[in-house]
Amino acid sequence: MRHIVALVVTLVASSSAALADDHAKCSTHKGLSVMYEPGFEPPVVEDNGLIQPNFVLLSGPWPETASSGAVEPGESFTITYSFVPDGTIIPGTGANEQDAPSNLFATMDANFPGGRFAWQSVFHQVFARYGEMTNINFVFVPDDGASFGISFPFGIPSPGSPGEIGARGDMRISMRPIGAGPLARNYAPTFGGDMTMDSLDVNQFSDPTNNFRKLRNVLFHEIGHGLGLDHVLPQNATKLMEPVLNTAFDGPQEDDLRAIHYLYGDRFESNENGNDYKFLGLQLQHPSVNGTQTLVVEDLALEREDSEDWYGVTVAGSIDGLPGVAIRVEPVGTQYQYSPDEDGAQMQTIDAAAARDLKFELYRRVTASPMTMQLISTIDFNAAGEAEYRPPAVYSLGGLFFIRVFSEDGIDDVQRYRLTVSNAEIAATEPDPSMLLSNATQPIPSGSIVDMPTTEVGQNGGLSLTISNTGQGMLEIDGFTIVGPAGSDYSAFLPSQPIQPGGFGVLSIGFAPTAAGFRAAQLTISTNDPAGDYELTLRATATEPQVGALTASVEGVTVANGATFDLGELELGSEYEVSVDLENVGNANMSVFNTTFLNEDTADFEQLTDLPLALNTGATDTIELLVKPLSEGQKHTTMRMSNNGVQPTYDVVFSYSVVAVELFDDCNSNGVDDATELDSDGNGIIDDCEVVTPPVDEDPIVVDDPGNDDVDNGGNNEVDDNDNIDDDGIDQDIVDNDGDDNNANDNIIDQNDDNDDLDNDNQDDDRDENREEKRSGFCGAGSIGMLTLTMLGLSGTRVRRRRYVA
Question: Are 561 and 553 contacting, i.e. CB atoms less than 8 angstroms apart?
Fold first, then answer.
C-alpha cells in the first residue's frame, strides 16, 4: 500500500543499501520525518504498520529521558529541550546533502521581529501547550554543542548526543540549509527526538501573520514527530500532522490530540485508580451558602482500552443541609476524514465524539486507611456519542466523593470528554460548530488573502471554496458583507441551509470587474461559530477586454460609429467609387462579416468588395463601394458593418444630394446658352463668337524665298532679279525652278504657303469638335460638392446646366 505520508523513517542500517535518492533514503527508515512547505508534493512512502483506527503513530512513547530515567506507560515525566549553538555540525540526510554547521541563532536573530527573546518565546509557548495536553513536563535547558549526529554510509544520519542533565536537552533544536520542499525534520523518540529546521525558509518562520502561526504550526508538527506521531492523510487542512504545512488552525487538532493522548494520556494520566485520583479542588455546599457551584474540566481522555479516570470532590453540609451532586460526562470530538492510503480508496469519516461508549460511577469514601468506598450510583443510559448525566440528588452523608469515568466496550481507542460537576442542575451543553474554508486541499483560515482569477472588464469570473464544519454543532451561516474600494465588483453565494457536523457546503465568490487594474475588497461571513466572523481579503487583477475594435474612414476622413459623411452633390445617372477604409485598433484579432445598407436609398449603393474581412490587431483593409444615384433629391443611406469587435455593428451614414443636368453650348464662356444670345447673320454663330476675315492688302505681298534677302533696288516695289513677286495676291510664289533667271515660264506653286489660307467655312465644325463635358468630383465630410465648369474660349464648350429639385 502506497501513502503520501511523508518520510516515515526508522534508522535501520541493514536496509541502507536499498536507498535511491535523498528523500527515498529517509522514507525507508522509521525514525526521521519531514514537514513540507505548501505546494510541495511529498514523496510516496510505505505504511509503517502503526496505524491506529484513525490516527498514525511514528513510534512508541519516550522510553527514557535524562531527568526521569526509564518511563513507564501512563507515568508523568519530564522532557528537556535546548537550542543547538551555531557552528555545531548538522549531518546531511542524503548523498546530495552535505554536512553543514547550525545557524539557528544567527538566522533567527537577524530575521525574526523582536530578535532572540521573541523567537525563543514562541518555541517555549509551543512546548508549554503540549504540556497542557499531556502528562509531560517540558523544561528548557542550555546546550553544550555536543555532536548532533554522524552520517553513516549512503547518507543515512544517526541520532546525535542524548540528553544529559547540565549539558543539553533531550530534544535539541538546530537549523541549517536543507533545500526546496522540506521546512523541517525531526527524529522519533527512540532516536532522540531532535529537530532540524531549514534556514532557507526563515521568511516563513518570521512571518508575523496570526501570531506567527506558520512557525507555531511547524513547531507543533515537528514536536509531534518528536513525541512519536506520524503523518496522516488526506491532506485536507483538518489535521496538524498532515505532511504539508497547514495554517487554517493553530496547533493540534482532533486527530492530533487523540494520537498524543493515546501515547501519553491526558494531563491527569496518573489517576488510573482510586488511590491515584485527581482531586478537583471543589467543595460542594448547599446553594444557599455560596449559590450555584459549577466546575467544568476540559481536555480529558480515556486513552486506551481498559483505561479509567478517577476524580475527587468534597461534599460539605450546612445549616440548610447537604448539597446535591450533579455530574455530566460529555464525549468530545469532531468529525473528520481519514485515509490510510494515498488514493483515498479507503476513506473514512471519523466521528471522534462516538469512538467509545462512556459511563461513570459515583462513590463515597468510607474509610481512608485502608481505603474503602461505597458505590452510590452508576450512570449508563445512553449510547456512544451521547452524554451521561446524574441530576443533583442529595446523599444522606457528606465527605469525600469519587467519580469514576470508564468504558467497557473493549475498543482500543481514545475518547475525549468533558466533566462537569455542580450542586445544581447542569444544562446540556450545546455543541459548537467550527467553520473552515479551503480551496481544494489548501486551507484558507479566517484573515487570509484570497487571490481571484484574472478577469477581463465586463466579463464574469469567480472562485468556489469549500466550507467545512469541523465542529460538533450545526453550522448556521447568517449572512455576509462585502466592502472596500472594489466591493461592488464582488458577490458571494452561500449555503441557505445549516451545515451538519462533518458536513460541507460551497461558497461561490463572483468577480465582475468594472474597471481595469488591481481590485480589492473585504468579505465578512457571519456564522454561529464561537470563533467569530470569518474574514477574507479578496483581491484580483482586472484586464482590459481582449477584443477587436473597428474604426472607419472615408476618403481619408475618420467617421465614428453612427456618424455622417457628406458625399456632397452627385449627378443623376453618374457613377462614383467610394472607399471605406477599416482598421482594427483593438487588442485582439477580429473579422467584419457582412454589410447591410439601410434607409430608403439603398439601391444607390453597390458593394464591390467580397466579405468577410479578417483584421488582425493593427491591420487595415478597404471596402469599395459604387454609388449610382437613381433619383434626385437629398438622401441618407446607412452602411452597417457587422463584426465581432467591441462594437458588434459599425454604422457609417452617407448624406448626399442628387441633381439632374442638361448640356448647352456656351462659346463665349459667359454661362449663358448660346441659343439665347444674339446671332445677327443667322449663321448659327452668335455675334460674340463670329470670326471676321481680315481684308487682303492691295499691294503685292513679297514673300521671301527661304534663305534670300528681299531687296528693292529700283524703288518700284519690285525686288531684284532673284526675287519673286506675288502678282495675284493669292499668296502663290513663282519659283525659278530651272535656274535660267526667267520666272515667267515657271508656274510651280510654293506648297509651304498653302496652309496660310483661312478656312472660315469650317469654323463651326472646328467648334463642334472641341466641345467638352467636364464632371466634378465631391468634397469631404462637411464640404459642399461642386461641379467645375470648364470654358474653352472661342473654340466653344458644351457645359452642364443643373436642374435643382427642391
Answer: no
Helix (H) or strand (E) holding 118: helix 115-133
Whether residue 617 has pLDDT greater than 90: yes
What b/e sequence results for 759-798 when a residue is b if at least 16 CB atoms lie within 10 Å of its CB, and e otherwise? eeeebeeebeeebeeeebebeebeeebebeeebeebebbb
Q: Single out the residue of 50, 71, 39, 67 nearest to residue 3, CA to CA.
A: 50
- Decide which of 668 and 172 is more confident: 172
Q: How is the chain split into domains, by residue range? A: 2-264, 274-422, 435-543, 662-691+765-803, 694-757
Query: Cβ contacts of residue 18 below 8 Å, gap of 6+?
Result: 28
Q: What does CATH list as the number for 274-422?
A: 2.60.120.380
The pLDDT of residue 41? 61
Q: What kind of fold does domain 2-264 have according to CATH? A: Collagenase (Catalytic Domain) (3.40.390)
Do the beta carbons of residue 55 and residue 48 sit within 8 Å?
Answer: no
What tens digit of pLDDT does each residue of 719-746 get?
Answer: 444 444 444 444 444 444 444 444 444 4
Q: How confident is the model at residue 113 (pLDDT cuts 50, 70, 90)?
A: very high
Radius of gyration of the chain (CA): 55
The single-letter code of the amino acid at 51 is: I
Cell of 10: 526508522
d(CA 133, CA 65): 19
Q: How far is CA 436 from the centre of its chain?
A: 21
- Tell me, rounded to whole angstroms, the distance of Cα 582 from its chain centroid: 35
Compute CA 55 distance to the chain's CA centroid, rounded to the nearest angstrom. Answer: 36
Measure the CA–CA gap between 588 and 148, rounded to whole angstroms: 62
d(CA 226, CA 704): 138
Q: Return d(Cα 370, Cα 404) in angstroms, integer.
A: 19
**Residues 422, 402: Cα–Cα separation, whole Å:** 14
Q: What is the mean pLDDT of residues 424-437?
A: 90
Find the mean pLDDT for residues 529-537: 93
> Which of 323, 310, 259 is CA-nearest to residue 419?
310
What whole-number distance in Å separates Cα of residue 656 and Cα of residue 525? 64
Mean pLDDT to the nearest integer, 151-163: 63
> Comparing C-alpha atoms, which of 76, 114, 93, 104 is closest to residue 27?
93
3-state secondary structure of 100: strand
Structurally, what CATH architecture does the domain formed by 435-543 represent? Sandwich (2.60)
Across the chain, mean pLDDT equals 82
Look up residue 488 and give its three cell numbers.
461592488
